[in-house]
Amino acid sequence: MARIFITGTAGFIGYHLAHLLLSEGHTVHGYDGMTDYYDVTLKQRRHAMLAQTPTFTATEAMLEDRAAIDGAIDGFEPEIIVHLAGQAGVRYSLDNPRAYVDANVVGTFNVMEGARRHKVQHLMMASTSSVYGANTDMPFAETDKADTPMTIYAATKKATEAMGHSYAHLYDMPTTMFRFFTVYGPWGRPDMALFKFVKATLEGDPIDVYNHGEMFRDFTYVTDLVRAIRLLMFDATPARPENGVVPEGDSLSPVAPFRVVNIGNSKSERLMDFVEAIEDALGQKTTRNMMDMQPGDVPATWANAALLETLTGYRPQTDMRDGVKRFVEWYRDYYRV
Ligand SMILES: Cc1cn([C@H]2C[C@H](O)[C@@H](COP(=O)(O)OP(=O)(O)O[C@H]3O[C@H](CO)[C@@H](O)[C@H](O)[C@H]3O)O2)c(=O)[nH]c1=O
Predict the structure, then answer these.
(1) NAD-dependent epimerase/dehydratase domain location, by residue (predicted)?
(2) ipTM for the whole predicted complex goes beyond 0.95
(3) Which of 153, 167, 184, 331 is catalytic?
């Protein structure tokens, strides 16, 4: 059993990952800033659920708070660090760019320093499919260039990939960075489309549909996603390649034990099919407010999941309609509606 330090445990993905690892008997220390970017009660409830397991402890502090993060990491002495906390959200970054630099750049640096001090077996950090930015070759592969971020959010995440690479190279620190693709499911984020659409429809409000519905997303069910992280954690620790020879299709660095891995469903769904799945799950029609494309948004995402499958023998597979149904069941139960 391992000692695993996870940032963002009161967040959507961090909660699910911690839950899975605790259920397997690992010891987890969670670290979360409990920011009010969205409803803090939801975050507190997630932490309260995790606290039911005695091998879970937590620190509530910001990533930029160097004394707090140093104290939490040094006190716990982790073998593995999974860094999921950060300022997420594509659209919020247009009005609040500084939050992204503080949490994602400075915060990630603080986590990397902790990983270096403790010589962790594996540092795993969250990036995003948003780093593919203006790329048009689909599906997106990790070996594609990703140099055209369209928001400061994507730019800060791309920066953390570069930062992670440098420490992996300098300190021989095995590092995996995930590029997540529109993760959804129970306990999901209230700023994301699924939560917003379900809430608005149940409250009799219209939903805002961007780009008149002409959008595509590779929606990834959260249980599949955390399973993929779990498999990468112990069975796919990157090692510096011998003589710098990298296998075909692998994103492994020629000079560092470092790779980026897409975690996506590998299916690009039409936004309007997603809306219809929500209507079917609710048994209710939406009222649609068709809007123009939003600044910084990407029209389509689609993950090439071949590397994930090669490394783990697994690829996400939950059908979007089933996943939406499970979210709606959770939402109705949680909010008693
Ligand atoms: C919030 C909202 C979204 N949309 C559209 C935009 C997208 O085509 C689709 C899904 O939007 P979202 O659920 O916000 O997800 P998306 O824009 O892909 O961004 C998510 O996925 C990204 C990639 O994993 C993450 O880096 C972001 O943190 C996360 O928010 O729905 C609407 O049409 N109306 C809305 O109100």
Answers:
(1) 4-233
(2) yes
(3) 153
